[in-house]
Amino acid sequence: MPTIMSHAAIPIAGALMLGRERLSVPVIVTGIAFAMLPDADVIGFGYGIDYAASWGHRGATHSLLFAAISALVATALIRPEKYLAAGLFLFVAMASHGLLDTLTNGGLGAALFWPWSDVRHFASSTPIAVSPIGVANFLSDRGLKVLQSEAIWIWTPLVIVTLPVWIIRSRSR
């Protein structure tokens, strides 16, 4: 998995590009939380849930269906002025998690199509170094290499796409 900070980068970039006219603060904050939420499945390790199980790490919580249902429920609870924009933003925020995980070079892949399939998927190219699980493991040479990989493959492309859009939007106000 990419680090939790890089998962949050997707909705942050989306919010900067779309602006407050389309997304309220509660929607943006929920999107950031949604981008990180699928990795809460690691608590299953403490309950004996196997990594490869449907509800194991990178399983059901990383699926597109889980993202869609979560987005629908959150949109109904938040009740934003712009339902469609908010719902799509929340879906993309959470779905981006599993999709980013398919780009990593470790783990078992992501069960994007659960419950129809428990098959774990990787992208055809996996350039992002997989992040170690646990803070102690992250604060190591491997953790630094993961951050370098994410800077190249996640943060730099996001800045290249987001900055010009944000500048154009700022100037047009």
Topology:
Elements: H1 4-18, H2 25-36, H3 64-78, H4 83-101, H5 135-138, H6 141-171
Number of strands: 0
Helical residue percent band:
55-70%
Q: Which stretches are poorly predicted, pLDDT < 50 over at least 5 residues?
A: none
Largest sheet: none
Task: Describe the protein's architecture and organization.
It is a single chain. The chain is an all-alpha fold and 173 residues long. The protein has 6 helices and no strands. Helix 1 packs antiparallel against helix 2 and helix 2 packs antiparallel against helix 3 (64-78). It is globular. It starts with a helix and ends with a helix.
Structural features:
single chain, 173 residues, mainly alpha, 55% helix
Brief overview, please?
This protein is 55% helix and 0% strand. The chain is mainly α. It is globular, with a radius of gyration of 16 Å.
